[in-house]
Write a structure and sequence with these properties.
Oligomer: single chain
Low-confidence stretches: none
Mean pLDDT: 87
Number of strands: 5
Largest sheet: 5 strands, mixed
Number of helices: 3
Structural class: alpha+beta
Order of helices and strands: HEEEHEEH
């Protein structure tokens, strides 16, 4: 996925949906790793007093190649052996890494951004009481 408009729109929607769960003054920087093949990687860094910024990185041949450019502990070894489909979420330290292995419009629309946020946050239950 190297459609920069679609990637930017998704990032904006994701940030908007996540904002209601963040304290005032907490921002998100997003490193966007587009690819020449299916999918892309979005690396969000969260923290206080961080300005909301987005940085497009150079286009990589594949999601696996882009993953090799990101410091992360979830995947190691020969990254070419992994196949990413749908949305894969990695949370490390103060980062959220979304590995999106789809190209279709539904994977990158506002509803998908909301669903990706819902994967990250859980509303407190009532403790079983009705």
């Amino acid at each position: 996925m190297k459609d920069s408009d679609k990637l930017q729109t998704f990032v904006n929607n994701f940030r908007r949906h996540l904002a209601s769960y963040l304290k005032p003054g907490v921002g998100l920087v997003c490193n966007i790793y587009p690819t020449n093949s299916t999918g892309a990687i979005l690396e969000f860094t969260i923290g206080p007093q961080i300005a909301n910024e987005d940085h497009f990185k150079p286009v990589e041949p594949s999601v696996n190649d882009a993953l090799g450019k990101i410091k992360q502990r979830a995947f190691g070894g020969n990254l070419a052996g992994f196949r990413f489909g749908g949305t894969n979420v990695v949370m490390e330290d103060n980062r959220i890494i979304l590995i999106k292995g789809e190209e279709n419009d539904e994977a990158w629309d506002d509803k998908a951004a909301l669903e990706d946020v819902k994967r990250l946050v859980v509303r407190p239950s009532s403790g079983g009481r009705t």
